[in-house]
Design a protein that fits this description.
The protein has two domains: about 5-140 and about 180-230, Spore Coat Polysaccharide Biosynthesis Protein SpsA, Chain A; about 145-175, no CATH class. It is built from six helices and ten strands. It has helices at about 30-45, 55-60, 85-100, 115-130, 190-195, 220-230; strands at about 5-10, 25, 25-30, 45-50, 105-110, 135-140, 150-155, 160, 180-190, 205-210. A six-stranded mixed sheet has the order 4-1-5-9-6-10. Strands 2-3 form a two-stranded antiparallel sheet. Strands 7-8 form a two-stranded antiparallel sheet. The radius of gyration is 19 Å and the shape is globular.
Length: about 240
């Protein structure tokens, strides 16, 4: 069984300029994900492939002894490029350069680093046990529920209705359980990568529920919150 780990880190960022290598509690954000990738790669004898269009990000990876000659094509380096297309391109490159046929791919998102080695192991084993599943991704229990307390506009007058409806639900505890995709990690099978899928949610997708906090660093306030949590040792996990 061959496993590839991809780390996709584009140079441009509108929300937090240069966020992929921005220092977080004294260490570039990128390094948190690489350190977890190194740890997981040792367990499964996996290869790691960085996908970036930015030489500064390549230099940051070299500082922790990772080197690559791969540069993401310009058409995949815009904020409109789909993540799945980016992953598939890196996947094909890695197979060629390493002369391997990968059975699985793990993508680790740099901007959502709150993941543990046990999260990755648990999700990977769950995917391997289900021979029909195409992929698995990390989630958290949602704070809001579209069956109970999420609404959307239904007409031009601005009147709203529940996003989803199921019977006579009067309490959130009665509503179906829903999850937030936290973008921390995604495992894909080769079947998925060879298919014509454009999103990570398919009719054969699994979810791995994290029991600890996880969130994406999209805005400056997210970065500040994460830094305070790390500095004050407020997290219940180590990253």
């Amino acid at each position: 069984m061959n496993l590839l780990i991809t780390i996709c880190a584009r140079g441009g960022s509108k929300g937090i300029p240069g966020k992929n290598i921005k220092p977080l509690n004294g260490k570039p954000l990128l390094h948190y994900t690489f350190n977890r990738a190194f740890e997981f790669a040792k367990l499964y004898d996996a290869d790691i492939q960085l996908s970036t269009d930015d030489n500064k990000i390549i230099k940051s990876a070299e500082a922790i002894n990772y080197k690559t000659d791969y540069l993401r094509p310009k058409n995949l380096a815009t904020d409109k490029a789909g993540k799945i297309d980016v992953i598939k391109h890196a996947f094909k490159y890695a197979e060629g350069i390493n002369n391997k046929r990968y059975d699985y791919l793990l993508d680790l998102d740099v901007t959502s680093p709150l993941r543990t080695i046990n999260d990755l192991k648990g999700a990977f084993e769950k995917l391997k046990r289900d021979k029909n599943a195409l992929n698995i991704f990390s989630v958290n229990h949602a704070s809001k529920n579209p069956y109970f307390n999420m609404v959307e506009e239904k007409d031009a007058n601005g009147y709203v209705e529940l996003v989803k409806s199921v019977g006579d639900v009067k309490a959130r505890q009665e509503a179906p359980i829903v999850y937030d995709m936290n973008a921390s990690f995604y495992f894909f099978t080769r079947e998925y990568l060879e298919g014509n899928y454009k999103t990570s949610v398919t009719d054969r997708s699994l979810a791995y529920v994290m029991k600890h906090i996880s969130f994406d660093l999209d805005h400056p306030v997210d970065f500040t919150m994460m830094e305070i949590m790390l500095r004050e040792d407020l997290l219940d996990i180590e990253i």
